[in-house]
Design goal:
The structure is a single chain. With 231 residues, the chain is an alpha+beta fold. The protein has five helices and 13 strands. The chain has a six-stranded mixed β-barrel. Strands 10-7-9-12 form a four-stranded mixed β-sheet, with no helix packed on it. A three-stranded antiparallel β-sheet has the order 8-13-11, with no helix packed on it. A hairpin with a 6-residue loop joins strand 5 and strand 6.
Amino acid sequence: MAQTNVLVAEKRTETGKGIARALRRGGEVPAVIYGHGREPEALKISRAELDRILAAAGASTVIELKLGGKKLKTLIREVQRHPTRLDVLHVDFLEIHAGEKLTVRAPIRLVGSPEGVRNQGGVLDQVLRDVEIRVLPRHLPESVELDVTDLTVGHSLHVSDIEIPNAEILDDPESTVCTVVPPRVEVEPVVVLEEEEEEALEPELIRKPRVEEEEEAAEAEPESGSPEQEG
């Protein structure tokens, strides 16, 4: 079950870029709430409290928004951040009702150490990080667990392997969630030698070629026959 976080919000009547910048300088964040046919309503919330919730919240965290004398169940629908500083610039809240099903993406958490990693030297590769589900707010999970303990090298788990009580999974059942890939084999680089280097690496010739040996042997032999005797 998703946890519920409490956040105090105030209505604001003034809007525009200048007002939004002024709010941020004062430690607040501009926001808006909508849903159930209501007109979008401009809000402001504490940046420190919002940062605290966002640090621990997942994609399916229920926020109880205290607005005046009301307590509204909401989901964070969109968070706009500064492109470089990553400061929160604006937040959209979607009001939810207990009896109305939601369509959200729930994060997938892999559980266990795969057989293919432990004993076969493989590497676990998670392809799909979240899954789209339709569920009542009271059954909304913080995350979806998938056991990978028996996964071996070359095999995968798919959306069809995920079980979520009281929820309908909307993603393609054949979509791959994770796989164990074989270990990478490093190939030794081929060294191409220059001609001079190749000559330097040739082994020294210890014995002379057979033709040279035969020529030297012939020169060393004495002439055949005995010299003429003088009369």
